[in-house]
Design a protein that fits this description.
This protein is an alpha/beta fold. It has 16 helices and 21 strands. The protein has a domain of 290 residues: FAD/NAD(P)-binding domain (3-Layer(bba) Sandwich), CATH 3.50.50.60. Helix content is 30%, strand content 16%. It has a five-stranded parallel sheet with strand order 3-2-1-7-19, covered by helices on one side. The protein has a five-stranded parallel sheet with strand order 8-17-9-10-13. A hairpin with a 4-residue loop joins strand 4 and strand 5. The longest helix is centred in the last third of the chain and has 21 residues. It is globular and about 70 Å long.
Length: 549
C-alpha cells in the first residue's frame, strides 16, 4: 500500500492520522458538497474518505480568491441547513459574504464536525474504475496512491474546472499572468501596474471595481456584455441576525419551496398583465433589493420573450444611466440576448468604474485579440501595454470536473464515452452504467439554476436515504436504468424548451467551450418541482433504479 503520510503532518488544518484507503465511501472533493457528504455518510455509520486536490477545504471558495470575490446569494441562504446549532452559532457580517468570510465558515464547519479526520488533502483523483467482482470503485490519484470504496461520490463541483484559454503568443508575455479561478493565496500587489482583464462574467465584474483604484491603468477586454443587477449589500445588524435566527426554519422552508432556492417569493404575476406603471414599480423594487432574484419579480421573465423584453429594456436603461461616456455606453449595454438567459451578474459599482480616467474598455467584437505580445495585447485596432494579464474566462461548466478524471464503469465504458454527445443522468444524480456512483449538483439537477446549497443538501439527503434503503434489503450495488436515464434527459430538455434558455449561447448549453456538445444541462423545473420528483421516485420504491445483491 502506498503511503502519503508526509502531507498529514506538515500543513496547517490537516489531519494527523493515516487515511483510510479502503472506506465504505470515497468522496471526491472537499468543497461544500464534499463536506456535506462526509457528514451524511458518517450519520449512517459508513466509513468515509474524501480526496481533495487543494491543501484546505472550501472547493471553489478555496481557489477563487481574486480581489472582490463574494457570493451573490445571501449568506443566510448560502449556508448549510443540516445543523440548527451551526445555523445559530455562525454570525454572518454582511448580507452577501466575501470569499474570505465564506472560506472561514467552511473551515469552521470542517473543525466543528471534525471533518478533516476523513479528508486526504493534496490528492487528485485521476482514474476511477468499477470492479464488478468486488462491487467497489478503485481509485488512483495523481501521485499513484490507490483507494477503493463501495460508493463513489463525485462532489467535484459544477464551476470548478477552469476553461482552458490560450491566446496566440501567450508564452511570450513578459509580465505576469493570473487566473481568477486560481488566484495566488498570498495575494497580488497590483499597485502601479498596467493591468488587463479578459472576461466580464461574474468574476470579472466583481474584480474590476475593486482593482481599478489600485492599478495605474486597467483595460477591460469584453467580448459579450452581460446584464448585471446591483448587489443590495449591507452589514448585518445584531437585530437582523437575531430576527433571521428566530425564524430560520421558516426561511429555509420558504427558500426550499421557491423556484430557485433564494429567499424571494416567486411572483405569480405575468409582466404582461400589469400596467406600465405597475411593471415599472415592480422592476424598481426588484432592482433596489432583489439582486439575482430580479429574475423572479414576474413569473414569465424566462419563459416569455415579450415579458423578458420589458425586463431587458429596464435593465439596459439602468445600466446605461451609470455610464457617463456615450461611446462606452454603446459598447457596454447588453443588446442581443434576453436578460437572465445567460447567467446574470450581481455587481457592486461595476459600471461606474468605467467613468474613471484610468479604465479603458476594449470591445473584442469590434477589435478581436490578435495576439499576446511581450509587452501586452495586440487587438486588430490597437496595442495595449500591460504588466499584468488576468484571465476571468470562466469554466467548463457542469461537466468539466466530472470528465477530467478517467472514470470507467461497467463493461469498460468510460464516462467520457457515455457523455460523448452530452451528459446523461437520471435525476442529475446517477448515470447508467456507473453503479454506486453519485453526482452532486451536476448536469440534470437544478444546480446552477438554483441556490446551489439547496441542490447539494437535498441531493445528498436523497442519496443517503436511497443507500439505506438499498442496504436494508441486502443489496451491494444500485444503478440507474438506461430507460430511466433517457426519460430524465428528455424531461430536462422538455422543461428547458418551455424557457428561453436554449435559444441563447451560454455555458448552460455548453457554448462557452469550443467543441463541447450543445445540450442544455441544468434542470430548469425549479428546486420545488425537482424535490417533488425525487419524493415520487423514492415513494415508488426508487423507480428507474436497479438494485443488486
Ligand atoms: O465566468 P463566465 P465567470 N476571449 O463564464 C469571456 C459563478 N460565480 O468566472 O460571454 C475573450 O461567466 C466570456 O465572454 P463570452 C457564477 O455562476 C459566482 O465570470 O463567452 N473573452 C465572459 O465574459 C458565474 O456565472 C460568483 O463572450 C472570453 C467571461 O470570459 C460563474 O461562476 C462569482 C474568452 C467568462 O464569464 C462563472 O463566472 C464568480 C476568450 N477566449 C463566479 N473566453 C458569485 O457568487 C471567455 N471569455 C458572485
Amino acid at each position: 500500500m502506498l503511503t502519503v503520510g508526509i502531507f498529514f503532518v506538515t500543513l496547517t488544518h490537516m489531519t494527523t492520522q493515516q487515511p483510510n484507503f479502503h472506506p465504505d465511501v470515497l468522496v471526491i472533493g472537499a468543497g461544500f458538497a464534499g463536506l456535506r457528504a462526509i457528514v451524511s455518510m458518517r450519520e449512517i455509520g459508513h466509513s468515509v474518505t474524501a480526496l481533495e486536490t487543494g491543501d484546505g477545504v472550501g472547493g471553489v471558495w478555496y481557489w477563487n480568491r481574486y480581489p472582490g470575490a463574494r457570493c451573490d446569494v445571501e449568506s443566510y441562504d448560502y449556508s448549510y441547513r443540516f445543523s440548527e446549532e451551526l445555523e445559530q452559532e455562525w454570525r454572518w457580517s454582511e448580507r452577501y459574504a466575501t470569499q474570505p468570510e465564506i472560506l472561514s465558515y467552511v473551515n469552521h464547519v470542517a473543525d466543528r464536525f471534525n471533518l478533516r479526520d476523513d479528508i486526504v488533502f493534496n490528492q487528485t483523483m485521476t482514474d476511477a474504475k468499477w470492479n464488478d467482482a468486488t462491487h467497489r470503485w478503485e481509485v488512483t490519484t495523481a501521485d499513484g496512491s490507490q483507494f477503493s470504496g463501495r460508493y463513489l461520490i463525485m462532489a467535484t463541483g459544477s464551476l470548478s474546472a477552469a476553461k482552458d484559454v490560450v491566446l496566440p503568443g501567450q508564452d511570450e508575455f513578459e509580465g505576469k499572468i493570473y487566473w481568477s479561478s486560481r488566484w495566488p493565496h498570498e495575494g497580488v500587489d497590483l499597485s502601479g501596474k498596467r493591468v488587463g482583464i479578459i472576461g466580464t462574467g461574474s468574476s470579472g465584474m466583481q474584480m474590476v471595481p475593486v482593482i481599478a483604484p489600485q492599478v495605474q491603468h486597467l483595460t477591460v477586454f469584453q467580448r459579450t456584455p452581460n446584464y448585471s443587477i446591483p448587489a443590495p449589500n449591507a452589514p448585518v445588524s445584531d437585530e437582523e441576525d437575531a430576527a433571521v435566527k428566530a425564524t430560520y426554519r421558516a426561511r429555509r422552508e420558504a427558500a426550499k419551496n421557491s423556484p430557485s432556492g433564494l429567499n424571494f417569493p416567486a411572483s405569480g404575476v405575468s409582466a404582461l398583465e400589469v400596467s406600465d406603471e405597475e411593471r415599472e414599480a415592480e422592476f424598481e423594487r426588484a432592482w433596489a433589493r432583489f439582486g439575482f432574484g430580479f429574475v423572479l419579480c414576474f413569473r414569465d421573465l424566462i419563459t416569455d420573450e415579450k415579458a423578458n423584453k420589458y425586463a431587458s429594456d429596464f435593465i439596459r436603461r439602468k445600466i446605461g444611466e451609470q455610464i457617463e461616456d456615450d461611446e462606452v455606453r454603446k459598447h457596454i449595454v447588453p443588446a442581443d440576448f434576453p436578460f437572465g438567459t445567460k447567467r446574470p451578474s450581481v455587481d457592486a459599482n461595476y459600471y461606474p468604474t468605467f467613468n474613471r480616467d484610468n479604465v479603458t474598455l476594449a470591445d473584442l467584437r469590434d477589435e478581436p485579440i490578435e495576439r499576446v505580445t511581450k509587452t501586452g495585447i495586440a487587438t486588430s485596432a490597437a496595442h495595449y501595454d500591460l504588466d499584468v494579464l488576468v484571465f476571468a474566462t470562466g469554466f467548463d461548466a457542469l461537466t468539466g470536473s466530472f470528465l477530467k478524471p478517467n472514470i470507467v464503469g461497467r463493461n469498460g465504458q468510460s464516462l467520457r464515452e457515455h457523455w460523448d454527445a452530452g451528459p446523461l443522468t437520471y435525476l442529475g444524480l446517477l448515470s447508467s452504467g456507473f453503479p454506486n456512483m453519485f453526482i452532486i449538483a451536476g448536469p440534470g439537477s437544478p444546480s446552477l439554476l438554483s441556490n446551489v446549497m439547496i441542490s447539494i443538501e437535498e441531493g445528498i439527503d436523497w442519496l443517503t436515504e436511497m443507500i439505506m434503503f438499498s442496504e436494508a434489503a441486502g443489496n451491494s450495488s444500485l444503478e440507474a436504468t438506461s430507460e430511466a436515464e433517457a426519460g430524465w434527459v428528455q424531461h430536462v430538455n422538455e422543461k428547458a424548451d418551455e424557457t428561453l434558455y436554449p435559444k441563447v449561447a451560454s455555458y448552460y448549453n455548453g457554448d462557452n467551450v469550443p467543441g463541447k456538445p450543445r445540450v442544455f444541462m441544468p434542470y430548469s423545473g425549479g428546486v420545488r418541482g425537482y424535490r417533488r420528483i425525487l419524493e415520487r421516485v423514492s415513494g415508488n420504491g426508487y423507480e428507474g433504479i436497479i438494485f443488486e445483491k
